[in-house]
Amino acid sequence: MTLVSQATPSGRTGASPAFLRKITVDPWLFGLFALVTLSVLVFAALPIFTVMKQAVVTDHGFDFAALADTLSQSFVWESLVNTLLLGATSAVIATAAGFLLAFSATRTTMPGKTFIHGVALLPIISPPFVMALAVVILFGRSGLVTRELLGIRNANVYGFHSLVLIQSLAFTPIAYLNIRGMLQSIDSALEDASASLGASRWTTFSRVTLPLVTPAILSSTLLVFVKSVEDFGNPMLIGGINTLAVEAYSQMVGYFNLQAGALLASLMLVPSMTAFLIHRYWVSKRSYVTVTGKPTAQTIRISGAVVIPLTILCYAVAFTILAFYLTVIYVSFTKLPGVDNTLTLAHYKTVFTAGFETLSNSLLLAGVATPVTAIAGMLIAYLLVRKAFPGSFLLRWGTLLSFAAPGTILGIGYVSTFNAPPMLLTGTAFIVVAAMVVKNLQVGIEAGSNQLRQIDKSIEEASTVLGASNTRTFFEITLPLLKPALFTSLSYAFTRSLTTLSAVIFLVSANWTLITVTILSQVETLKLGVAAAYCSILVFVVLAILAVMQFLLTSTSKR
Questions:
Q1: Cα separations (Å) of 19 from 231, 387, 389, 438?
Q2: Per the omega criterion (within 30 degrees of 0), is the bond before 422 cis?
């Protein structure tokens, strides 16, 4: 009877529900969680859903006739087919090139691996359309190769094949880094065991190495496909075919057709989200590397005659990339590319006088967006990995949606969502910074999540046992341990914020013009020398700042 009389319903004086206990343990941390979740929903999910709504809803409500009329237009399906075909072709070629570079760098005695690695990373730290600019300079109507060397007049460099070449070279680093990391994680003992049992090099490669690296190959193919689908700068410069990204921009800006632009942007979301979800939930779960255990060292086992053709192919890819970048640098010093190749500094004078504002704006906004992106990424990773507040799924899916969504739909969504009170942000620096942060946030979250899984929870538990709150534990214990992931996030966020185009081209204003948009306008007006000067300066600025970041990371690691 005593036990019965002491029992009380949990809804009155007993223990609070589990989710309330999680909130009351550290209300400050829950407040941060609520603030971050609300920000992600407002600045990531809401703009995307606004675009999807505009695609099917007009001023008169849901208008099926208007939707059917737009879908019946030939340019819609032509753009969709071109985008999918271009994405698939570029993905296959870029993944094959990335695998070639990664395998040769990790499994052979190929000379000059540091050189190959450095050149292969150039497309990552530069604007996405540098390759397109180089192709126009080299093979265009006044191209250095077509007109100056071969004497070909009115060369047609525009169209599908040029875009495949450009996107394949531009996105090869994505596949290279992904596959290289997987190859370095494979335990060498597995391949050694195959060789000791009498298997040939080809047998070991085809039956051991290739199956283990298959998840990375499929993952790279899907990632490159997504990047190709959302690419705006290269198809815009080259032209010749309609793609969803360019056609959505044309409908919005050129024809002022908001519904058609929103519909095309929404169509971009379908293949991007499909590929991204396959990559995240199917490919990643079929990684076979964890079966082998973490290796202590890698053994280079392939040497001899087979290395020669691999080396030739790797250097062919590297020198092609390097030739394109050197061409851009050279043209930045020529008076009138293809007509008067006299060396001059006039283009750089233009950049540092009349065009200096765009460079300073880009550096300022990227400098603001970078720490926000990195810190927010670490905080969200901590909230998702270490905590389970009510509504965590909203935060998780909001960030995934923003990362998988093409930049074009995000830019259109920002224009539509934040163009009227009470959220009138169009034309301000804030909206540009918000787009930069949202588009790059997921990379910081992934880096932080992977790092957190390697940190023993007992370290944080010891802090809370000694009386520290969860908020203090995060900022004084967890965040310092996330330093490698933090620097990775800082580097990526700064690079992509400074070189982004598709998400911000809709958001620039007279007060806040950006360098990537300026480069695009210079190319469209055939001022290739000024555009090349902008690109060259941008590449060197990114390289210099990344070198400083790496120096700071090395210095702090030694201390």
A1: 42, 11, 7, 28
A2: yes
